[in-house]
Structure formats: C-alpha cells, structure tokens
Design goal:
Elements: H1 2-11, H2 20-42, H3 47-51, H4 57-87, H5 92-126
Length: 127
C-alpha cells in the first residue's frame, strides 16, 4: 500500500512541485554535459564505464557528487517540503529515491553521451 502511494506521488506531474520534474533533470544534464566535455578533453573513459573500473570508482563518484551535490541536496529538500505540503507527512527515503532518479541518472547519462560525442568530434578534428 505504501509503495502505491509513493508511485502515485512520483508520477503526478501536475500540482504543487511539478516543475521539479523539469528543472532538476535539466540542471543535472547541464552539469553532466559540462563534465562530459571535460572528460573528453582529458581523454577519460565515459562516466558509467569508469565507475566499473575499481581504480577510478571512488574518485569518479566524488567528482560526480561535487558537481551535482548541490542540485541533489536541493532536490531532496524540495521533495520533502512538497511531499509535506501535499500529504502532511515526511518521507525522507522517498525523497532520496526521487532525488536520485531526477538528478544522478540524467547526470550520468548526459555525461557519458557528451563524452562519447565530444571525443568523436575531437578525433575528427585531429584527422
């Protein structure tokens, strides 16, 4: 029953707090693009690929959180506030889940794709 309530609140795209479903992913995509270009210029592997390398995993996660940490924290705080306004209760675990979905997933995808695209562009320009 509790899971159903969480899913209903998550997929509700209208009403209080609906703008977060647009702004938070857009901000994280912006930071992902910025970091993806930096990765390409430095010749680093794409972000998700480098997370699976044991030597780079910790440093990449630190770098990612440094880049989108503020957006992630704001996403969690806003979600807690909006959920309290909507339902009158606090759900911090739900806020962590939604913050992760709205911030880290778009960031990771944008960073990886940007790295691939920009790396190909750099190789093409060198040829």
């Amino acid at each position: 029953m509790r899971t159903l309530i969480i899913l209903q609140d998550f997929v509700r795209l209208s009403g209080p707090g609906s703008l977060r479903f647009i702004l938070q992913p857009l901000m994280s995509v912006f930071f992902g693009i910025k970091d993806g270009i930096t990765d390409a210029k430095l010749g680093n592997d794409p972000f998700l690929f480098s997370l699976f390398k044991s030597s780079e995993k910790k440093s990449k996660l630190k770098e990612a959180f440094k880049s989108v940490g503020k957006v992630f924290i704001i996403a969690i705080i806003l979600d807690i506030i909006f959920y309290y306004i909507i339902s009158g209760t606090f759900a911090p675990l739900q806020s962590l889940l939604i913050g992760t979905i709205l911030v880290f997933i778009p960031y990771s995808i944008a960073r990886g794709f940007t790295n691939r695209i920009y790396s190909a562009k750099l190789k093409k320009n060198k040829s």
